[in-house]
Amino acid sequence: MRNDGQPASQDDSAQIEKTEHKTGGKIIIASLTFALAALLFGGIYFAFAAKPTDGSKEISIHVIDDTASSTVYIVNTDAKYLHQAIDETKGLTVSGTESEYGLMVETVNGITADYEKDGAYWAFYVDGEYCIYGIDQQLVDDGQTYQIVYTID
Question: What is the residue range of 35's domain?
Answer without folding.
Answer: 1-49
